Amino acid sequence: MAYELYYWDGIQGRGEFVRLALEEAGADYIDITREPGRGTGAMIDIMESESEPHIPFAPPFLKDGDLIIPHVANILFYLGPKLGLASEDEGLRHVANGLQLTVTDFVAEVHDTHHPIDMSLYYEDQKPEAKARSAAFIRERIPKFLGYFERVLRQNPKGADHLVGDALTYVDLSLFQVIEGLTYAFPKAMTKRKTEYPGLLALHDAVAKRPNIARYLGSPRRLSFNEEGIFRHYPELDSAG
Fold this sequence. Notes:
Blueprint: E1 3-6, H1 15-25, E2 29-31, H2 39-47, E3 61-64, E4 67-70, H3 72-83, H4 90-114, H5 127-154, H6 170-185, H7 187-193, H8 198-208, H9 211-217
């Protein structure tokens, strides 16, 4: 039975972290909201169900048969062993989960650069605050998070090709997406800082060349970044820092 992925149509967003794992593994999955005749309504029906015993708060969530798994890190923790994208060592699986949760924190801060006050307000309603938040994000938070992941790579006892262990995991795929998204959203900032993170850039490039990922990136299934998702490019928010 195919996995069912539920996420907003038209954007990469948080759902992309799950898609990359499914695509890398060549897993059979259905992107439900992109399916003709189903769409976003099928996702909302589950979220607003009055009878489903395990309703998710928000997308993305994954259905595997009758089981519903919400939250990116939780989904990947579940899928990792099934897709061959997690270590066989139980301890290292929890290390990977911790790293993925840190990615989750980072992605939340990316989102807050363009919505620093209220998610219900448009970006245009909070532009001065977004500019101030983005300046601090570029100056302090990008180097804090990327510097941390660079050290994780460098200090991996199994070598600096992967974040955890000696083989590709879902965390490597997620860091690829983070670098892609930051480069789209903050090209000036990332151009200045790229030389500071040679390990992460090498990891990004290696992931992009993996056959299944390369095919996915060149397919219609990989949506382009846009100003409706998490990683948004507003020129006025970008700077070399």
